[in-house]
Design the sequence.
């Protein structure tokens, strides 16, 4: 018998959405990666990049009530994507460079994104990128933020930290990677230097495991927001801290933005995209209780043999959902 696919190892019926209960304005997904895709090939004549995966993902998004997505993609993809999908996509420009490259490489990349009309720029600074100089507060990124601000960009997204479990495994060498709390010193520096910008800390601020820490950040920095992206991570940790996360979002409903972190890749089946949106809507708006249907390599199987973490819906109130799903992004990004 064929193994069940990673997007549905429990054989759940994704077509059953009777537990969905949100009926407000359409959803805005502020964190995704819709790109042109092509197969990995070593042929002499590589395939031309195509939009078929974008077509599939946006069709699924529409099915789940998502009306607009902000995509991170290479600057050369923005024109073809905008031509095909119009206002259904907004764009977020990730600013990066290789360690040995001069700072001008990052500034030239920023200029390309600014010319393409991005709404957001992104600084990816996970610990695994530090040996390549990818700190969120690297001097060339601070200068990029200044230049973007001068060009009219008012929103910056940052990826600061990774799951707690990674700090017990991948990042166990604290002398090399620092501790998880160490990562936030760099974020605080940016927040204190650029109080006139709005900052979105991706993946629930990189710390859904510690809602008290997230609340302290929100209290200290009124220009900081969190997005809900990264399906497996949020399902696992938000469910494990269900009441504390729910209470935080209900108290601070104007500071959270819906995001999926879905990525278009060549050859992905339609059900892959369905699984992620199904899990997100189930997690945030319903009181559904069960096991996550998605394979999660960061989950340690329980003694009872269960191979995926619990998915425990927060059942956020309708007015809170409207803010998280739509209103906050509409105010922040237009």
Sequence:
């Amino acid at each position: 018998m064929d193994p069940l696919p990673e997007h549905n190892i429990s054989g759940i019926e994704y077509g059953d959405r009777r537990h969905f209960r949100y009926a407000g304005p359409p959803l805005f997904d502020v964190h995704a990666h819709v790109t042109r895709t092509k197969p990995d090939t070593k042929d002499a004549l590589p395939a031309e990049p195509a939009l078929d995966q974008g077509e599939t993902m946006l069709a699924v998004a529409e099915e789940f009530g998502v009306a607009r997505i902000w995509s991170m993609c290479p600057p050369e993809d923005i024109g073809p994507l905008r031509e095909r999908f119009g206002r259904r996509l907004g764009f977020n420009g990730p600013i990066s460079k290789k360690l040995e490259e001069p700072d001008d490489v990052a500034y030239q990349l920023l200029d390309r994104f600014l010319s393409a009309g991005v709404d957001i720029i992104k600084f990816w600074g996970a610990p695994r990128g530090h040996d390549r100089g990818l700190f969120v507060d690297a001097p060339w990124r601070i200068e990029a933020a200044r230049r973007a601000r001068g060009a009219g960009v008012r929103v910056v997204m940052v990826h600061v930290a990774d799951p707690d479990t990674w700090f017990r495994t991948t990042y166990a060498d604290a002398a090399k990677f620092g501790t998880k709390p160490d990562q936030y010193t760099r974020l605080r520096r940016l927040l204190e230097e650029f109080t006139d910008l709005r900052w979105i800390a991706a993946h629930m601020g990189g710390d859904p495991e510690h809602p008290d820490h997230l609340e302290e950040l929100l209290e200290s920095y009124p220009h900081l927001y969190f997005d809900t992206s990264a399906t497996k991570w949020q399902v696992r940790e938000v469910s494990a801290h269900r009441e504390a996360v729910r209470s935080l979002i209900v108290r601070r409903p104007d500071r959270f933005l819906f995001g999926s972190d879905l990525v278009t890749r060549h050859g992905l089946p339609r059900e892959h995209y369905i699984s992620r949106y199904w899990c997100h809507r189930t997690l945030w708006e319903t009181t559904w209780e069960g096991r996550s249907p998605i394979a999660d390599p960061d989950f340690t199987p329980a003694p009872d043999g269960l191979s995926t973490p619990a998915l425990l819906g927060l059942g956020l109130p309708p007015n809170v959902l409207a803010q998280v799903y739509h209103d906050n992004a509409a105010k922040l990004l237009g």
In short: Residues 27-37+49-333 form a domain with the TIM Barrel fold (CATH 3.20.20.140). The chain has one domain: 27-37+49-333. Residues 205 and 214 are 7 Å apart (CA to CA).
